[in-house]
Each structure stands twice: as C-alpha cells, then as structure tokens.
UniProtKB/TrEMBL annotation:
<dbReference type="InterPro" id="IPR004469">
    <property type="entry name" value="PSP"/>
</dbReference>
<feature type="domain" description="Phosphoserine phosphatase ACT">
    <location>
        <begin position="109"/>
        <end position="179"/>
    </location>
</feature>
<dbReference type="GO" id="GO:0005737">
    <property type="term" value="C:cytoplasm"/>
</dbReference>
<keyword id="KW-0479">Metal-binding</keyword>
<dbReference type="Pfam" id="PF13740">
    <property type="entry name" value="ACT_6"/>
</dbReference>
<protein>
    <recommendedName>
        <fullName>phosphoserine phosphatase</fullName>
        <ecNumber>3.1.3.3</ecNumber>
    </recommendedName>
</protein>
<dbReference type="InterPro" id="IPR036412">
    <property type="entry name" value="HAD-like_sf"/>
</dbReference>
<dbReference type="GO" id="GO:0036424">
    <property type="term" value="F:L-phosphoserine phosphatase activity"/>
</dbReference>
<keyword id="KW-0378">Hydrolase</keyword>
<dbReference type="InterPro" id="IPR045865">
    <property type="entry name" value="ACT-like_dom_sf"/>
</dbReference>
<keyword id="KW-0460">Magnesium</keyword>
<dbReference type="InterPro" id="IPR049148">
    <property type="entry name" value="PSP_ACT"/>
</dbReference>
<keyword id="KW-0718">Serine biosynthesis</keyword>
<dbReference type="GO" id="GO:0000287">
    <property type="term" value="F:magnesium ion binding"/>
</dbReference>
<feature type="active site" description="Nucleophile">
    <location>
        <position position="194"/>
    </location>
</feature>
<comment type="similarity">
    <text>Belongs to the HAD-like hydrolase superfamily. SerB family.</text>
</comment>
<dbReference type="InterPro" id="IPR050582">
    <property type="entry name" value="HAD-like_SerB"/>
</dbReference>
Length: 407
C-alpha cells in the first residue's frame, strides 16, 4: 500500500451555465502557477456546470515558496477568469489525507428506483453517514427504464453497510447493490441466467400444459412443491409425466410462443460487446433452451431433456436432472471452461431452485424474486427490465446507447 500523504490543498469550484471552453479556461489560468492537480471533477446537471479542481503547491517547481502566497495568487487569477466567463467561483483550503493512498476500502453502491425520490436518496446518504463512511462521488448511470445512481464510498465496513442498506432499501422500496471497487467490476465476467420468469416471461412447463390439456393438474403439483411437500426433482418428474403422449410438434409451438423479458436482448448484446461469457441454466428443457442459445448467441447452457419417441413425449426425462444443486454445478463448470474466477461470475434468478447458483456466484442477483430468494441473494432487482442489471456492473445507459449507434 502507498504511504499516506498530508497535502495542503486549495479547492476551486466554478459553477454556472455550461458552454464550451470553461474547463480549458480554468486549467489555462491554473497553468501559470506552481501547482499540481490532485483531483478534478466536472458534472453538468440541467445545463448547469459544476467544475471542481483540487490543487496543491508543486514544491519541486517552486522550492521554499509559501503556499499561502501561491493560493492567494491563484484565487485572484481564477476570480478574474470567472468574471470574464460570467460564472461563480468558491474557494476552500484544507488537507487531503487520502492523496497517494491506495483505494482498497472503496465501495460502489448502486441504486435502482422508479422513480427515485429525494427522501429515498437522503435516507441512503444518512445510512452511509451513520456507518462512519464518506460519499466521495455520486454519478447518474441511467434515467430510463429506471433511474440509477451510483455512489462511491470510502471508509465503510462492507458487510455491515450492506446489511444496513438492505434494510433501508426495503423501507424505501428501492434496489441497492453494494460491491467492492476496483478493476474486477469491468474485468472479464461470466453471467449465468435462469430461464423461466427471468430470461423469458412465464414458465415453459405451463405452456406445454396448455397444449396437453393438463394445466390444472400441473398447477396442483407446482403448488404442492411450493408448499415444500415435494423437492424439485420429484415435482418436475410428476409434471413431465402428465405430458405423456403430447405430440412433439407442441415444442415447436412453445418455442414460437416464447416472450423475452424486457431488456433481455440489450443485456446480452451489451455484455457480449464487453467480452463477457453468457450462459443459461434451466430446470426446463433443452428442446427450448437450445433455441434461446441460438437466438441470443449464448456461450453455454444446461437444462433437462424431455424424452421423445416416435414423435411423442413419453412423460420421462433423459439423463440427470438439473435441479437446485445442478444449477450451481453448471455455473462452476461454465466458469472453469471460460477461465473466469468464480468471484467474477454473476448469477441471476428468481426462485428457490436458483439459490445455490446465486450463492455460488461472485454476485447473486434476485430478479423479481420470491421473498426467500430476495433475503438470501447479494442484491435484488424488483423492476421488470432485465437490462437494469447492466447498471449494477457500473455500465451507464449512455455507454450502451453509444455502442448501439456504432453498430
């Protein structure tokens, strides 16, 4: 770790109507003085510019010079520049104890809300303050389909802050993700998605039941499983048995009925552009998931296979069942094949059958999930847009749109 330095600094903050050349004029003004830039931030909100420059005296250029004198001269010159630009300027002196320090304790806190109200963001900021941490930066990642804001935070104990913010998220009806800062957020990842009610809308078994005329019977077995009276494999085998005799052409009809979750194409397209590996793991059937692999250009998949003999479903399955444990094993297998460390994997799912997979991943995301899944996942997304997952990875809506325009 780099040693801490205690630097005497001058913060110059220029505000006013944005137009080309403001930052250039400020930096040109500063360039004639023996100062170095410690930090620089610029943001435009509603055509109003906020530009901040944190500077310190460069003693290698002006050894023995009095800092107070340099800062006084800087103030005078910048004030004249601000007047010429028709802008306001403020100054403050202090010391920056973090100059030169390694940012090993930094966290990114990402908020998703529709809409994002001031009270909710204020509650999050208060929660961070109570933890003794500091918000160093706030950035907007998206305005639609939801509002996404990212906070860069230092000085927090990660697990405690994650727990505190999870409670605040439930209270404010927003989604919050807490992740360590660093290059790994944009390093090559593997993203693995559940299929039914995650990548696609609805459940494939229910669509097949409609064709087989056994919707009510399958619904009863599903309800029994949800009450905990059946494990996943037994539930699946009983439901598949009800499909015995169904013509295999029904599989083609169901493939045509599939409706992707809003934002699914954008999510996959963007991740692939960034070099991510994309996979699906399903308790459903390869006769359906294989079509999704081709349709979305996915890299890996795992699912169960319906037995078909003489053009009819036999009511049985071929091979081992992909159940809750099997989903986690599939994620681990995909990660090994892709050469991606497991802590750089992301899993997205909605049901209890996804829990092992979510917990095996570096980041487990509960997408419009059942309560038991929301409680145990790393973070939750409770809006109906799958591409909001992009924001949790630090990718902004503007970056997505810019990449789309380049195609």
């Amino acid at each position: 770790m780099l040693a801490m330095k205690h630097e005497c600094t001058l913060l110059v903050t220029v505000t006013g109507h944005d137009r080309p050349g403001v930052s250039a004029r400020l930096l040109t003004t500063l360039s004639v003085f023996p100062v170095t830039i410690v930090d620089l931030e610029q943001v435009v909100i509603g055509n109003q510019l906020v530009l901040g420059a944190l500077v310190t005296v460069d003693e290698s250029v002006a050894p023995g010079v009095r800092r107070e004198r340099v800062f006084e001269e800087v103030r005078g010159a910048v004030e004249k520049t601000a007047i010429d630009l028709g802008m306001d300027v403020e100054f403050s002196t202090g010391s920056d104890d973090r100059v030169g320090a390694a940012a090993t304790d930094r966290l990114h806190v990402t908020l998703l809300a529709d809409p994002l109200r001031p009270g909710a963001l204020g509650a999050v900021a208060s929660c961070v303050a109570r933890s003794g941490a500091n918000i160093d930066r706030i950035e907007r990642l998206a305005q639609y389909p939801v509002t996404s804001i990212e906070l860069e935070i230092s000085g927090a104990e990660p697990e405690q802050l994650r727990a505190d913010l999870a409670l605040e998220a439930a209270t404010q009806s927003i989604d919050i993700a807490v992740q360590p800062s660093g290059l790994h957020r944009r390093a090559k990842h593997l993203v693995t998605l559940d299929v039914d009610s995650t990548l696609i809308q609805g459940e494939v078994i229910d669509l097949l039941a409609e064709h087989a005329g056994c919707t009510e019977e399958i619904a009863r077995v599903t309800e029994e499983a949800m009450r905990g009276n059946l494990d996943f494999e037994e539930s699946l085998r009983r439901r598949v048995a009800l499909l015995e005799g169904l013509d295999a052409s029904a599989l083609d009809a169901v493939r045509d009925q599939l409706v992707l979750t809003p934002g699914a194409r954008t999510l996959i397209r963007t991740l692939k552009r960034l070099g991510y590996e994309c996979a699906i793991v399903s308790g459903g059937f390869t006769q359906i998931t294989d079509a999704l692999v081709e349709r979305l250009d996915l890299d890996y998949s795992a699912a169960n296979t319906l037995e078909v003999v003489d053009g009819k479903l036999t009511g049985g399955l071929v091979g081992p069942v992909v159940d809750r444990k099997g989903k986690a094993l599939a994620l681990e297998r995909f990660a090994e094949e892709a050469g991606v460390p497991r802590d750089r994997t992301v899993a997205i799912g909605d049901g209890a059958n996804d829990l092992d997979m979510l917990q095996a991943a570096g980041l487990g995301i509960a997408f419009n999930a059942k309560p038991v899944v929301r409680e145990q996942a790393d973070t939750t997304v409770n809006v109906p847009y799958l591409d909001t997952v992009i924001f949790l990875l630090g990718i902004s809506r503007e970056e997505v749109e810019a990449a789309d325009l380049m195609e």
